Amino acid sequence: MTNTPSDDRSVEPGAPKDDEPVQPELQLPDDAHMVRRAAQRYGTVGAMLAGGMVAFDRLLGRKPKEEPAVVIEASSEPEDIEKGISLTLEQPDGETLDVFAPPPGRRRARAYRRRRRSDGQGA
Fold first, then answer.
1. Across the chain, which distance is largest between two alpha carbons, in Å?
2. pLDDT digits (tens, 9 = 90+) for 93-122
3. In degrees, to the nearest 5, what angle opens at C-alpha 67 toward C-alphas 87 and 25?
4. Helix, strand, or coil (residue 85)
């Protein structure tokens, strides 16, 4: 009897069989995932640095924040900040507080100096 493609049921060694449940891939904890990603991106030194930072984080006992970021919609479009921003806040006791932020300063344009190419020939 010859094997035809329809009844060829050969299985590679180590491959799951049809009647076995397929196990999901092992999920790494966030810390191990961070170290593995640092190793992939930055090599051994990156993995060592990431591992050290994870160790310091555990030693200090800091817990990650589980609170989602608060997003508040503005009631209108933002105004032009070239004139500065001013706010008037009313406190619960009825007192008002005026706040003013000056406009951002103008930055000077960056000066670029071009390098001369040396062609190896003295001029």
1. 96
2. 989 988 888 887 766 667 777 777 766 655
3. 140
4. strand
Cβ proximity of 100 and 85 under 8 Å: yes
Handedness of CA 59, 48, 42, 39 (dihedral sign): negative
Report the alpha-carbon distance of residue 8 to residue 18 in Å, rounded.
14
Could you count the other beta carbons within 10 Å of the beta carbon of residue 31?
A: 15
Answer yes or no: are the C-beta atoms of 98 and 91 closer than 8 Å.
no
Q: Where are the domains of the chain?
A: 28-61
Q: Which of 6, 25, 9 is nearest to 17 (CA)?
A: 9
Instruction: Express each pLDDT in 45-95 by its tens digit.
Output: 999 999 998 888 888 887 766 777 788 887 777 677 778 888 888 888 989
